Amino acid sequence: MKISSSSHYISKFSLFHQIRRALSSYTVHELQSDQYGAPLEVLKLNKTQTIDGNQLKANESIVKLIASPINPADINMIQGKYAILPKSFPATFGNEGVFEIVETNVKAGLKPGDWVIPKVLEWGKWRSYGILAENDLMYIPKKDLMPEAVATLSVNPCTAVRLIKDFVQLEKGDTIIQNGGNSAVGLAVIQLGKLWGFNVVSIVRQRENLQELVDYMKSIGGEHVYVEEDLRKAILLTDLWKKIPRPKLGLNCVGGRATIDLLRILAKSGTMVTYGGMSKQPITVPTSEFIFKNLTCKGFWLSRWKTDNMKNNEYQKMLHELIGYIKQGHLKPPQCQLFKLEDYAKAIEASEQRFSTKKVLFIS
Ligand SMILES: NC(=O)c1ccc[n+]([C@@H]2O[C@H](COP(=O)([O-])OP(=O)(O)OC[C@H]3O[C@@H](n4cnc5c(N)ncnc54)[C@H](OP(=O)(O)O)[C@@H]3O)[C@@H](O)[C@H]2O)c1
Where is each Enoyl reductase (ER) domain found (predicted)? Predict the structure, then answer.
């Protein structure tokens, strides 16, 4: 049979790709558990499969982990104490992260080397490799971006944006007060608040190396940093409000006593939004403030916001706005500690350290 030179070329070309793909296979390791429990007791790094490009359906890509953080919600999920839980076991954890395309069947658009954020919530990101469809990936223009900034972008800075924008109509010069001021969300609130012209008063827990923390928070734009005890002293009961307006918006990451004190500081008709419960204590609203100051207390959950905004372009628009701020130097990623997946026990221990302002990230 006579083969035309072009079909001969095509068959050689596809043979070349088949051989290359057969040679490039990827071992998938996933940080999983078979049950809920304490992370150090239940997590295991499992070798789950080997994948290669021949398995890819149209529009699918093989992605490789670049970096994925440990957030408090990940720990809560492993413990079985979160609003969204895995549908089955073994379950792979990790709610956010940045990956690199290593092979792709996507004809136009994505190419090897591109950075992507997986959009699928239930697809655990603590894994070395995986296969995802094009619709499940968000392309990130990586020029001038640090992996840590992208890996930690889709939860905490997005939460900060929604907390500042969605509850109170703030005007330039208005004040926001927040506890957990050194959390990743809090650090993003400080930077975005400053960028948008608001005063941000941040409350942190007392600690031995307080000055070091305050210096760091000031270096990223935190002008007003106080400890929880100051909420009951003249400086925050009266004095500061002679210089800047009382806060119209309070952001609660902590719960318990820190929140009662913060509520007392709010302006008349102020709003407090609870988004975290780090102290594991309930919120008690002081009755007289609630009635006589006409306070509003609300809750916020980014996962619900993402579900509500799945069909419009708002999430993508917000990520690109935040990427712009990172590139312009307005938004710095949290300080990070990096661990390989196989060092997961050390990583979990580091993430559970008190008074650490460093985000723990898995890298491949
Ligand atoms: N609702 C949402 O959609 C949403 C989205 C993102 C995050 N969150 C929540 O927001 C919170 C912060 O998340 P993140 O990733 O920003 O956290 P992170 O960077 O890990 O920081 C944790 C913060 O909590 C403080 N903290 C820890 N234990 C505490 C305790 N017992 N009492 C008081 N403060 C304590 C830490 O202060 P120290 O330095 O003093 O230890 C630090 O400020 C978490 O509860 C998380 O689940 C919620």
Answer: 38-362
Does residue 45 register a pLDDT over 50?
yes
Q: Is 92 in the pocket of ligand 1 (CB under 6 A)?
A: no
Q: 130 lies in which domain range?
A: 27-152+333-363
Rounded to an integer, what distance in angstroms lies between the CA atom of residue 232 and that of residue 208?
A: 20
CA of 285 relative to ligand 1 center, distance in Å: 20
Residue nearest to atom 26 of ligand 1 (CA): 278
- Mean pLDDT value across residues 46-60: 96
Confidence of residue 4 (pLDDT cuts 50, 70, 90): very low
Cα dihedral value 263, 333, 340, 303, nearest 10: 50
Q: Is residue 20 part of a domain?
A: no
DSSP category for residue 109: S
Q: What's the CA-to-centroid distance between 180 and ligand 1, angstroms?
A: 6
Mean pLDDT score across all residues of the chain: 94
pLDDT above 80: residue 9:
no
Window from 13-22, 186-195, 254-263 with minimum mean pLDDT: 13-22
Q: Are residues 148 and 169 in the same domain?
A: no
Task: Output the pLDDT for position 107.
Answer: 85
Mutation pick for ligand 1 pocket among 253, 298, 355, 357 (CB with most ligand atoms within 8 Å): 253
Provide the 10 A C-beta neighbour count for residue 181: 27
Report the number of distinct structural domains present in the chain. Answer: 2
| 171 within a domain of the structure (yes/no) | yes
23 CA distance to ligand 1 centroid (A)? 44
Atom of ligand 1 nearest to the CA of 354: 41
Q: Over 70: is that where the pLDDT of 148 sits?
A: yes
Query: Of 351, 345, 334, nearest to 151 (Cα)?
Result: 334
The neighbour count for residue 251, using CB atoms within 10 Å, is 33
pLDDT on residue 7: 46
